[in-house]
Amino acid sequence: QVHLVESGGDSVQAGGSLRLSCAASLYTYSMGWFRQAPGKEREGVASIRDDGVASYADSVKGRFTISQDKDKNFLYLQMNSLKSEDTAMYYCAADNTWISAARSLTASWYRYWGQGTQVTVSS
Questions:
Q1: Residue 23 burial (CB count, 10 A)
Q2: Which of 93, 8, 102, 101 is nearest to 42 (CA)?
Q3: Strands (E), 3-42
Q4: Tens digit of pLDDT for each residue in 6-55?
Q5: Residue 94: is it exposed, middle or buried by C-beta count within 10 angstroms (0-12/13-18/19+)?
Q6: Residue 70: pLDDT over 90
């Protein structure tokens, strides 16, 4: 069982930045960030594998950066140039399997989930 705890969510102005963190109780091969806005489906934002391969949703490419600290079992999401459409609950996800890049932004491939951290961007 892997426990995930997110932090770093906040309310910011459009154009601002935030850094989300996810503390994992154990190391896993695949990790990702997902988000869900009210009335919308959960969508993949960014993912990273043990070999460092990262994937991003088109909507965040060039603005968000995913990274991890393998020694401390932390996952991060640096979010720059935030837009109002980035407003959502952000979730950390992890799995003990090696998820391909093509599948890594699909929620169903991840077994473990955190409780989420709220990001609100006002214009």
A1: 16
A2: 93
A3: 4-7, 11-13, 18-24, 30-36
A4: 999 999 999 999 999 999 999 999 999 999 999 999 999 999 999 999 99
A5: buried
A6: no
